[in-house]
Write a structure and sequence with these properties.
14% strand, 14 helices, alpha/beta
Length: 420
């Protein structure tokens, strides 16, 4: 009995330092006063916090906030910048000079219906109706009627002529000519119609030399249509037809048929990049690069418009901005030709709107680069979708060739139309 009491006393004496440490841990001072958390509480809290952050970062990146990495001072600034990715239903979040348009997309297949084609077709119908009204009017009444009807989007000087003044309104330009993916943002400085139209995108088709001026290739060469039977009825077949049409207009064209989406489509851009670099280096005469694609939409969606009496697949120009809402400017995907890329696609989009209203969907803007950085006149074009027939897609090559010629020859946007 005596021995047990002695050992018990030693146990209490041995535990005394631990008790003191624990007691000290209970009373930890901070700026707001005395807290009542133990070391165990703090340890559990730290583990839970770290596990919660790692889980969110892996499963729901938009919920993972790290001030040291995002550069945002508060969680509220972080949410404001990334709300489009967190809540797609949020729609448009517009600030003073910045637009974030939220859309659903997967890689380069945009399962969405675009209103640009129908809007431009409706505009053409309105113009035709107005011309009929003006023809039946007389004198000052006709002039006044014309001025009232065309004071908005369209100039009264020519059919389907968009007012250059109206195009300089950023909100109008964005609404009528662009769709912005939730991965990125843009602003009025980047999309400035006056500056984009002022850029000279023309080339001299009669320039001395025998080297190619235009390169057509396909990052996704395996893209086909609803009734395609083989490669000849894929986007590669469209490239053959477009090459033929452009050569008839006097351009020298190289159609590259390399396959980069076999077996893995997701790394096609990385695999095609070395080939593009080599082609540009070996052909210094190249001035235009066109990446011809086919879009992917929901089954039942039909991207078709009548052009010159033919059922024709609609097209969509595409630009990558090398900028995402999550990362900001992407330094490893820098594009020194971005402003020229944007000008090139906009000039072709406007040429389509003024000459083939309803044929071209809105220009789609996304966050990455898509190998558009090799030349100033680089463009990516989606021709119809998997629900189109190959004939509808092939019919699109004639208006596309004409649009390209209008821009590259300089006849669509001369000094007068540029406001010089």
């Amino acid at each position: 009995m005596h021995r047990m009491k002695k050992n018990k006393g030693r146990i209490w004496i041995g535990a005394l330092p631990l008790m003191c440490f624990t007691a000290a841990a209970v009373y930890v001072m901070d700026s707001s006063g005395v807290t009542t958390h133990t070391v165990m509480d703090a340890t559990v809290h730290a583990i839970q916090s770290e596990l919660g952050y790692k889980t969110a970062k892996s499963c729901i990146p938009a919920l993972a906030y790290d001030a040291s990495k995002t550069g945002k001072k508060t969680i509220y600034e972080y949410l404001e910048a990334g709300i489009g990715e967190l809540l797609p239903i949020y729609g448009y979040t517009r600030k003073k000079d910045t637009q974030l348009a939220v859309g659903q997309s997967q890689y380069l297949d945009f399962a969405m219906e675009d209103s640009c084609s129908s809007d431009m077709a409706a505009l053409a119908s309105k113009l035709a109706s107005q011309e009929n009204k003006n023809a039946s009017a007389s004198g000052d009444d006709a002039a006044q009627a014309s001025e009232k009807e065309t004071s908005g989007a369209v100039s009264s000087m020519a059919k389907n002529k968009y007012s250059r003044e109206k195009l300089n309104d950023f909100d109008y330009l964005l609404q009528n000519f662009y769709r912005v993916d939730s991965t990125t943002t843009t602003n009025g400085e980047q999309l400035n119609a006056q500056k984009m139209l002022a850029k000279d995108m023309s080339i001299d088709k009669k320039e001395n030399g025998s080297g190619p001026q235009i390169l057509i290739y396909h990052t996704h060469s395996q893209e086909r249509y609803a009734d395609s039977k083989d490669e000849s009825q894929s986007v590669v077949g469209l490239g053959d037809r477009l090459t033929e049409l452009l050569e008839q207009k006097g351009y020298r064209v190289l159609h590259h048929k390399g396959e980069y989406d076999i077996p893995d489509r997701d790394t096609a851009y990385s695999r095609s990049a070395p080939a593009l670099e080599k082609l540009v280096k070996e052909n210094p005469s190249l001035q235009v690069i066109l990446d011809l694609h086919r879009d992917g939409v929901e089954e039942g969606t039909r991207l078709v418009h009548e052009v010159n009496g033919k059922q024709t697949a609609t097209i969509m120009f595409f630009n990558g901005l090398s900028h995402t809402t999550a990362q900001g400017d992407i330094s490893y995907l820098a594009n020194p030709n971005l402003s020229d890329n944007l000008a090139f696609s906009f000039q072709m989009q406007l040429a389509a709107a003024e000459n083939y209203p309803g044929f071209s969907r809105c220009i789609y803007l996304r966050g990455y680069r898509y190998n558009l950085h090799y030349l100033p006149r680089s463009a990516l074009v989606e021709v119809g979708a998997q629900t189109n027939t190959y004939e509808e897609a092939q019919n699109a090559m004639e208006p596309l060739a004409d649009i390209m010629d209008r821009v590259l020859s300089g006849k669509q946007f001369g000094e007068m139309s540029r406001g010089k």
